[in-house]
Amino acid sequence: MIRRDRPLRRAGRGLYAALAAVVLLLAGSAASATPVAAPAADQASSGNLPGFSHGTVAVQGTTLHYVRGGSGPPLVLLHGWPQTWWEWAKVMPSLAEHHTVIAFDLPGAGESSIPTGGYDKATTAKRIREGVRKLGYTQVSLLGHDTGALVAYPYARDFPAEVVRMAVLETPLSGFGLEDMNGISFHLGLNQTAAPVPEKLIDNDDVSTYLGWLFSGARYPERIDQAAFFQAYASPARRTAGYEYYRAFAADATNNQANAHLRLQMPVLAMGAEGAFGPLVATSFSQVGDDVRGVVAPDSGHWIAEENTAFLSACAKLFFGPAGVPAPSAALANCVA
Prior knowledge:
Elements: H1 6-10, H2 13-20, E1 33-36, H3 43-46, E2 52-59, E3 62-70, E4 74-78, H4 92-95, E5 100-104, H5 121-134, E6 140-145, H6 147-158, E7 163-169, H7 186-192, H8 197-201, H9 207-215, H10 226-232, H11 236-247, H12 249-258, E8 268-273, H13 280-285, E9 292-297, H14 304-307, H15 309-319
Parallel strand pairs: 4-5, 4-6, 6-7, 7-8, 8-9
Antiparallel strand pairs: 1-2, 2-3, 3-5
Helix pairs in contact: 5-6, 9-10
Pfam families: Abhydrolase_1
Keywords: Signal
Organism: Amycolatopsis magusensis
């Protein structure tokens, strides 16, 4: 998530926007996937897309909400903070033309239930992977943004035979650059502060002010459905879940560094926005992967799926599609499968 202040746009504009993008959220053992209708009481945060259906699946310690549609090889979408699966709404119809798209609400976010613990990204990845397998998929590709990218990494690292390709958007990796972003903006420290400090400082009436300030760092904030995300984080429990993902950053860094020898062998697309992280995403993930393709999304801030939907759709179509399809432009050259 990005917040850029005007003076810093002149001195290190891209770096600051990238660093501030760290505002991430990811936000039952038995079970089956149960199709459900979108809850009428929460339409703004859940949303409806033609051709997609809502469902839930029970996994260890929580229940995951997902939205699924399309046909073809499965592609799992993992959102960032302070968002829900709805951040992908603009790009999902295009992706579903060639893939079975499964967009999860991360544990504690959206309409997924709120677990009592396990907000480190390795545990979250295991929960998502369990949900994927209970839906009947044994091999998938992953597309993660912000905190979703931090979850995608241990999924691919710990279950490499089950991940065909992975794309990560707009964040360096914990232990490999993310910690260097601390101090660039007050919200990074605030969200990591032990309870109940952020819980006491940000109450229900402050949500639109706090999150609206963060979204204002976008290049095109008007393209983001901010009202839906204000509603999604109106609950104190949902906000705490988000803070817990931040509070786990140090543990994530330790885990990632300890397992860095398990280098990613599958193709990895590492995309940063022109107005945010830019090439820093590829610089970070190149330290843990052997086939990392760096891409910079033009004319976009941190929220690429919403700010430059056309570019992300075109890049994803190439990267997750068949080999040998040429790029239609130089900007998409590293998106080629």
